[in-house]
Design brief:
This protein is α+β, with helices and mostly antiparallel strands. It has helices spanning 26-38, 57-60, 81-91, 103-115, 117-133, 138-147, 151-158, 168-188, 202-216, 225-234, 238-245; strands at residues 3-4, 17-21, 43-46, 70-73, 76-79. The chain has a five-stranded mixed β-sheet, covered by helices on one side.
Length: 254
């Protein structure tokens, strides 16, 4: 699990579950859904990503990458959404969101969902919606580059800094990765309700926010009939309402 010692020591005195999250963040959606599935009470610390509220000394002192979500459980700081939802399920085991066998495959689905975030999901989202609507001022860009130490994130954000925009090569590479992953997911869902079969698990929670966000960006999911069916079933779950639509009813209107 990804536990860190924060530079901002004020959070170590927090009692109970506290979540730093963003309404439009697909990674935050995973954690909100998991907390809902568990019926857990938590304190919200919402950061408006459109206003760049995560780009601050205080928040980078909590999460050194400046990313959401960050979970604080009785003063212990947890980062990385797949690690967080796995931690929640292990620490608060009822109801279980794990498979009784083949747990390694379930965890691989979690890993894959997060591994494509920067190389595929972010470029697609930024190229289609975000970079048109949310731009950093020169001062905000300078602040971000000063705070951010992660090279992958620095490189990504430098591509659309100021008047620059992500190029066709970035979007094409993103589409190739997404096509490969969603083809695999669609094939896996053939003839079964959930990713791991007939049991709802963390694997489903890891992937449904990507579907929601990318639908809002116009991604052509109509070619994936099994994913479309799976997503429709998913939308009836209370955790989908609590974790996604309560905070972001329509990603296309971000």
């Amino acid at each position: 699990m990804a536990i860190i010692s924060p530079a901002n020591k004020s959070v170590e005195s927090l009692k109970g579950l506290h979540l730093y999250h963003g309404d439009i963040s697909n990674c935050s959606m995973r954690v909100r859904m998991t907390l809902s599935e568990k019926g857990l009470e938590w304190t919200s610390h919402h950061l408006d990503l459109k206003k760049k509220e995560n780009i601050s000394d205080d928040y980078f002192g909590i999460n050194p990458k400046g990313l959401v979500p960050t979970l604080i459980d009785n003063g212990v700081v947890h980062v990385e959404s797949n690690e967080i939802i796995d931690y929640i399920d292990e620490t608060y085991p009822e109801p279980s969101l794990r498979v009784t066998n083949n747990e390694a495959e379930m965890l691989e689905w979690l890993r894959l969902a997060t591994s494509i975030h920067v190389p595929a999901v972010k470029p697609y989202v930024y190229a289609t919606i975000i970079q048109k609507k949310v731009q950093k001022t020169p001062e905000e860009e300078k602040k971000y580059q000063a705070l951010q130490t992660n090279k992958e994130l620095k490189d990504f954000h430098s591509k659309h800094a100021g008047s620059k925009a992500l190029g066709e090569d970035d979007l094409q590479r993103s589409e190739e990765i997404l096509s490969e992953c969603f083809t695999r997911l669609d094939q896996t869902l053939d003839g079964q309700t959930w990713i791991m079969g007939e049991q709802f698990t963390l694997a489903d929670i890891a992937w449904i926010p990507l579907h929601f966000v990318l639908v809002g960006c116009g991604y052509p999911f109509e070619q994936y009939t099994n994913i479309t069916r799976w997503a429709k079933v998913f939308q009836a779950r209370q955790s989908y309402q609590d974790g996604i639509t309560k905070w972001c009813a329509d990603f296309s209107k971000v």
